[in-house]
Amino acid sequence: MSPITPFNILRHELIGLKVRVKDSTCRSYLGIKGEVVDETRNMLYIRTENGVKAVPKSTCKFVFTLDRTVKVEVDGLKLVGRPEDRLVR
Amino acid sequence: MVRRATIRRIARERMEILFEKAIKIHEREPELAMRYVQIARRIGMKTRVRIPRKYRRLVCRGCKQFVHPGCTLRVRVKPGGQPHITYTCLRCGHITRIPIKKTD
């Protein structure tokens, strides 16, 4: 299986990746970190140590950790879309 | 086009990831397992990619939900004129029969 690269992260599966909210238009979403457990058109559901948090994609910049060493910063606006729609474009 | 082949490859990888996760967590969180299988099916439908063969039996043809031998699926070997294996979904009752082929 080819690894998820910073090139294809926009199309690849986000569920299971470790993620951290780096920047946000709303202060209450800053610093949320954990593992992605679900994804809908506009939201990412992240399991943190305090439970599962629903975070809107369009308001945040995320940092995903791929393969334990590589980190990618992604603007949430580019992630908007249902999981199956994100794959096709 | 190179684009289409890449999309199909990523689709297959995503489906494998999702099915592996569903298998791992289905005992603790069955609803999440069903959700992952639902996403995997949608990805396959959207990109016209088939579910990889080893995961095909994990989806019930009747209710389209995640199904696992031992807890939500009953697997029996039936004798008779045509020996076959029966997979019964314990949620919707749908039965899949696979005839046993002799491999020589």
3D structure, described in words:
The complex is a heterodimer of chains A (89) and B (104). Helix content of chain A is 7%, strand content 44%. Chain A has 89 residues and is mainly beta. Chain A has one domain: Ribonuclease P/MRP, subunit p29 (SH3 type barrels), CATH 2.30.30. In chain A, a hairpin with a 3-residue loop joins strand 2 and strand 3 (43-48). The longest helix of chain A is centred in the last third of the chain and has 6 residues, at 83-88. Chain A is globular. Chain A starts with 17 loop residues before the first strand and ends with a helix. The mean pLDDT of chain A is 87. Chain B is an alpha+beta fold. Chain B has one domain: Immunoglobulin FC, subunit C (Single alpha-helices involved in coiled-coils or other helix-helix interfaces). Chain B has 2 helices and 3 strands. Chain B has helices at residues 2-25, 30-47, and strands at residues 73-78, 84-89, 95-99. Chain B has a 3-stranded antiparallel β-sheet with strand order 1-2-3, with no helix packed on it. The mean pLDDT of chain B is 87. At the A-B interface, strand 2 and helix 1 of A face helix 1 and helix 2 of B.
What CATH calls the topology of chain A is: SH3 type barrels
Based on the structure given, which CATH architecture of chain B is correct?
Answer: Up-down Bundle
Number of domains of chain B: 1
* Strand count of chain B: 3
Largest beta sheet of chain A, briefly? 6 strands, antiparallel
Structural domains of chain A: how many: 1
Largest interface: A-B, 17 and 20 residues
- CATH homologous superfamily annotation of chain B: Immunoglobulin FC, subunit C
Q: How large is the count of helical segments of chain B?
A: 2
- CATH names the topology of chain B as Single alpha-helices involved in coiled-coils or other helix-helix interfaces
Helix-strand makeup class of chain B: alpha+beta
Radius of gyration of chain A: 12 Å
Roughly what fraction of the amino acids of chain A lie in strands?
35-45%
Superfamily at the CATH H level of chain A?
Ribonuclease P/MRP, subunit p29
